[in-house]
Design goal:
Length: about 280
């Protein structure tokens, strides 16, 4: 399996073009920060719980189908034990490597009836990791669109997510968010309670800060997107926490069709949706 390495004095990443152009490894000052398997093929056996991967053309869950959107019938099929279609279509497919940290994939025209293209650029500069994603509609009519990044960060980990409102359950997401309170109020850095799986919105700047207390490394996230959201999941049985910048709230297709807040974006033909994430390390 091909591995593409990008590095400077402090930061090293290893990318797997054949498996979703995902980050297999993120190492800062010699310390692994991602949940990285010893065997590369684990990314294919269990693609959702290792490394960091692109989610497109939707994030989180949508119905497996069939669902009608305008003149199109959406039927991506279930890829998760709960019967949902989760995290899009490109997280484990082979991508084309363009060089200089750039990758590209064309997909769609199947269970997701619009054809589309996803671009990825990864850069390291000034003690920061930059991950830029684009989603372009190649079809002749508007396409529901969403982008996200799904990293699994190793514990022990302190987390701050500076969102004013939260969708407290991602699996059966309620139509409207609610003000943060209790274990969902993560505006001050702390340990994240076990078994949360929620989405935060109305984000402050910076929206996310992380700290690995045992190795003395911190990270500040900045997110550039039309409607930034942050998903976080802390499964009690796993040695990692997912902190996921994305462009929409959970159940994004339902939200778009029902006129609920935080839905997938209607992307006109030839237009591009962008998401950029900067992780600055200290």
């Amino acid at each position: 399996m091909e591995q593409v390495q990008l590095a400077d004095d402090d930061i090293e990443v290893v990318i797997l073009p054949e498996v979703g152009a995902r980050l297999h490894r993120l190492r800062v000052r010699g310390h692994d920060l991602l949940r990285t398997p010893a065997d590369l093929s684990d990314h294919l056996r269990d693609p959702f719980r290792w490394g960091a991967y692109v989610m497109a053309p939707w994030c989180n869950r949508v119905e497996a189908g069939p669902v009608r959107a305008g003149s199109r019938l959406i039927s991506p099929g279930a890829n998760f034990p709960d019967g949902s279609a989760i995290h899009g279509q490109v997280y484990a497919r082979p991508w084309q490597q363009l060089g200089d940290g750039k990758f590209l994939i064309s997909a769609g025209g199947d269970g997701w009836p619009w054809e589309y293209e996803v671009g990825l650029r990864i850069q390291i500069a000034n003690r920061s990791l930059w991950i830029e994603q684009t989603l372009t509609n190649l079809a002749v009519d508007p396409m529901p669109a969403g982008l996200g990044l799904h990293p699994w960060f190793r514990r022990p980990l302190l987390v701050a997510i500076r969102g004013e409102v939260v969708y407290p359950v991602n699996t059966a997401s309620q139509p409207q968010p609610e003000p943060v309170s209790g274990s969902f109020d993560l505006r001050d850095m702390s340990e994240m309670a076990a078994d949360l799986d929620a989405t935060w919105a109305r984000l402050a700047d910076p929206p996310v800060e992380l700290r690995w207390p045992t190795i003395g490394i911190g990270a500040t996230f900045r997110i550039t997107a039309p409607t930034p959201h942050v998903v976080a999941a802390s499964p009690g049985e796993l040695d990692a926490i997912a902190i996921e910048p994305q462009t929409h709230a959970p159940q994004g297709l339902r939200r778009l069709l029902n006129g609920e807040p935080g839905g997938l974006a209607p992307l006109d033909p030839g237009r591009t949706l962008s998401l950029a994430v900067e992780m600055a390390f200290a």
